[in-house]
Design goal:
3-stranded antiparallel beta sheet, 20% helix, alpha+beta, single chain, 200 residues, 5 helices, globular
């Protein structure tokens, strides 16, 4: 009797590690296009800040999360076909779109946020050619990956120093990395010696 119990337990434990032949494996298609994925994506937390004190909240308490609705809407209306081929999308948050100096999300600005091919954040190591035809300039500085002036997947650099921005978010035929700024196609790299020198 004891042998039967031990044998049953051993077989049951071994079966726990065997794949289930009757359960279908997940296919490679996620059934989520770029726009739908962006609309469902949760961005970094938004703290109450000084406004929270007036309503009985701590400044550091979270009042909600940023979203990507504005960029998703602009992408949908831009005419850019992200269903044909593979793409990497650098998506600014709604808060970024609302910044005073942000460019409008025209079709050209949206194209400047999209590169052909799937590029995981960890593989970014050079300038990125965009669908607009202009490259975003790569820089690695302070343990952060930059394209132009935007940090790709920004993460805090210490206690209470910021929010985390999601990266490597998969959609049917590409990846999404989130950024805290709207990229401007007019951006140009400023050299290290800009502003130096004297009057000749």
């Amino acid at each position: 009797m004891l042998r039967a119990v031990i044998l049953a337990l051993a077989l049951g434990a071994a079966a726990a590690f065997a794949p289930l032949a009757s359960k279908p494996m997940r296919g490679s298609v996620l059934n989520a296009g770029a726009v739908d994925t962006l609309k469902g994506l949760q961005g970094p937390a938004i703290p109450w800040g000084s406004d929270g004190v007036l309503v009985g909240k701590e400044e550091s308490e979270i009042k909600g999360y940023d979203t990507f609705e504005k960029f998703a809407t602009a992408l949908a209306s831009s005419g850019v076909d992200t269903a044909s081929g593979e793409f990497t999308i650098y998506a600014p948050t709604d808060s970024a779109v609302e910044l005073v100096n942000s460019p409008d999300l025209t079709a050209d600005v949206v194209k400047y946020h999209i590169t052909p091919g799937k590029m995981p954040k960890g593989s970014i190591s050079g300038d990125q050619a965009t669908l607009l035809g202009k490259d975003m300039t790569y820089k690695y500085f302070s343990r952060q990956t930059f394209l132009d002036d935007a940090v790709i997947g920004q993460v805090p650099q210490g206690a209470a120093t910021g929010q985390s921005y999601p990266v490597d978010i998969a959609f049917d035929n590409g990846l999404i990395h989130t950024i805290a700024f709207v990229q401007n196609p007019a951006w140009t790299k400023v050299s290290g010696d800009a502003g130096q020198g004297g009057i000749a």
